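Worked Example 4.2. Consider the chain below.
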Amino acid sequence: MTTTALPAVDVMTPNAMVVLQDRPVVTFNPWLAEALRVCGASGRALQIVTPATSRLSLALRLVLTGPGSCWVVRDGDTCYDGLTGRPMHWGGGAFVPVPEARDYAPGYTSRPKEPLGSQLTLTFRVRHGKGDLVGGAVGHLCQALTGRPPAGWGTAEPVANLWNLGDMTGLLRERAPRATWLAVVGGGPAGEAPIDGGGEPRVGESNRPAQPGGQGRTLGATMLLSATQSGVEEAVTLAIGYPAADLPPVPALPSLIGSVAAQHRLASLFAQLSPGRADLTTEPRWAGSAAPIGMAMGAEMGARPGPAGVPGHPIGDPRSPGMWFGLGDGRSPEGWQRYEELMRHLGSPA
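Applying the procedure from the previous section yields the following C-alpha cells:
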C-alpha cells in the first residue's frame, strides 16, 4: 500500500482509494463526495473502512455502488463488507472478498444495537420537459407521507439549502449537460400523516433543513438528474423510517402513487418495505429481508395489464392512465415471486 497526499485519503493504489473513518455515523460529506468523483474519473473503487460501532447514512450507503466500492468493517483481527456480511481481506491493491469464505462474518449476524422499526423505500423515475421545475414528485410524496414538505437539499451531507424547486432546477441548468446528484432530507412527527394526494408544497416554500435523527419519521432521498433529448429524467430513491410502533401506510400507497402519476410524468415506481432503523442509518449487521409492495408503470410506458396472478389496475389521469401492480404487504417473501412473474410478463411481446 502506498499513501497519498490527497486530503482525507489514507491509502491510494491504482485500484482503490481507501478512507479510514472512526465516528458513530459516517455521512456523504463534501470531501467524500469529491473522493467519489475522483474515483469515478480514475476508475478506482472507493472503500470506506470503519469499526463495527459505526453506521452509514442513507445517502452514503446508496452511492457505494461502483465496481469494488464497499464499506469495510474492522471486527477484531478480521474485516467484512458491512452491507453484505461477506468476509474481506487486503488483496494488495484493494480490499477484496475472502475467496474461501462460505458464510457471513460473525459480526454481521450479531443482534442490532437498538430496536428496529421499518423503512419504506420508493424507487422511481420522473420525466420533465425542458422548461419544467424538478423535484415536484419528491415534494408531493414527502408532504403526503410525513405531513411536511422536504426540509432541505444539497450536493453532500449535511444538506446546506432550504427546500426550493427553483433553486434545484437552477443548479441543474447551470451544470448541464452533466448529471446532477442531490441529497434531500425531511421528516415529521410519528402518527397519522395526511395521505390524500394533495398538499404539494408551493415553489419556493421551505423550512430550515433538518438532519437525520430525532423522534418520529425521518425522510431521506437521493436524486440523480440527467439531461435527455426532451428535457430531464429524475431518478430517485426515497426512504422513510418508521419507529416500531408507527406502521407504514401500505394500504394507502396505491392511491398516493396514483395521485403522483396524475400530477407528474411518472415513468415507473417500485415500493418495498424492509426492517431497519427509524433514523435511516445502517448498522454493519443483518437487519432482515426486504419485501415488495407494488410497482407502478406510468402512462408513457403503456397501461398494459399484468399476468393473471398480478392483474394490476389503472392509476393516474383517467384520460391517460398508468398501471399499479400490487405485489404484497411488504413483509411476505412471496411478493418476490409475483415480482418475477410480473417482470417476465412485462418483458414479453405485447
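Helices lie at 30-42, 58-63, 136-146, 165-175, 253-263, 334-347. Residues 4 and 12 are 6 Å apart (CA to CA). Compare this with Example 4.1 before moving on.
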